[in-house]
Every structure is written in C-alpha cells, then in structure tokens.
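FW: tagging you since you asked about this chain on Friday. Here's the raw sequence from the shared folder, copied in full. Didn't touch anything.
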Amino acid sequence: MSGADFKVVLLGSEDVGKTSLMKRYIQDRFQCRPHQNTIGAAFASRTISTRGRQFVMGIWDTAGSERYYAMSQLYYRDAKAAIVCFDLTELVTFDRAKQWITELRNHEEDCKIYLCGTKKDVVDDGIKAPALSHEKALQYAKGIGAVYMETSSKTGLNVGELFQLIADECVLPSIHNRDDSIKLRPSPNKNNACCLAS
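HL: got it, structure written out here
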C-alpha cells in the first residue's frame, strides 16, 4: 500500500469531482479547467494527525469510466474507508453511487462508507439547481449506516473535515488489525512500559 498506514478509496461516476477532491485535500489547490480523466487509478498520500498520533493516509482515486469498472475492485480491496461521490446537480450520478455502495457491501463488508455530494459551490452560487434534496441524500446515507457530507473542491468546503473524520473513525482500528503492525518490545521497567492508545 505504498507505505500508507491505512487506505481510503474514492469511487463514483466520471466527472463527479473525485480528482478535484483529492487534489484539494493533498495540494490545497483547485484547477478550474477540466482534468484529464483518470486512467485506472491515481495514488496520493498525506500524513494526518488523530488522537495525538500521526499516520499516513493512502488515497486511491479510481477512474469513473465504465470501461475501468472491473479494475476498481483491485483498488478498493482492503480499504478501511470509501468516499463514494456524486454530483449534487446530476441525479444519475447519485443512482450510480448507490450501485457502488451495493458493490462495496458485497465485497468489502468492513469498509466504512462516506457518501459525498460534490460541487456544492455550483448549487450555492445558483449555477445549477440540486438534483435531489439534502434530506433525501442524508436519509439514504443513514439507512445504510454511512456518513453523508456535501463538499466543494473549489472553495474547500468540508474537504479537510471529511478526511479528518475518516481518520478519526478508521485509523486506530486499522492499525491494530494490520499484520505488520508495530511490535512493542517489553520494557525492563514496568513503570515505563508503553502501549498503543485505544
């Protein structure tokens, strides 16, 4: 997993803004002109702090094109969290997000799901109307035990908060369960023994 402590995967249709979301989080920048479509998947990582410790979050940005659909299973295997994205102004991308979630549930039962409505700035600026209400998306997320958040990669709205929430909820269980987790040597001084925070 390229040296990362835990794995997060971005899933969703083409052009919903997965790459923009990752670039805003990793590089804190937004590219106005369209990105070249992701081929297969792209990887990035970032050190993140949670519960007084630092960990490396590995993020896989997968291609949304149907022709790469079969490959996506390779990238979400063993992921601790999946950000399933849809465009707030395109209903078809919400329907596709639901299909991704069904797929995840069938193959990665322990993967926590974060449903992400992207391009909130487009709605807030009145450029396009939302394709579904906040309440409907939230109700769906609650029904499947997922977290729902609306983001804007252009303004940065809720981007850092989303990834921080993932770290706070997922990182420590993933570290405890890793085969190559940190092995602590017994201390000769019992009063000086250390342990992983729980």
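FW: The chain has a mean pLDDT of 82.
HL: agreed, and The chain has six helices and six strands.
FW: great, closing this out.
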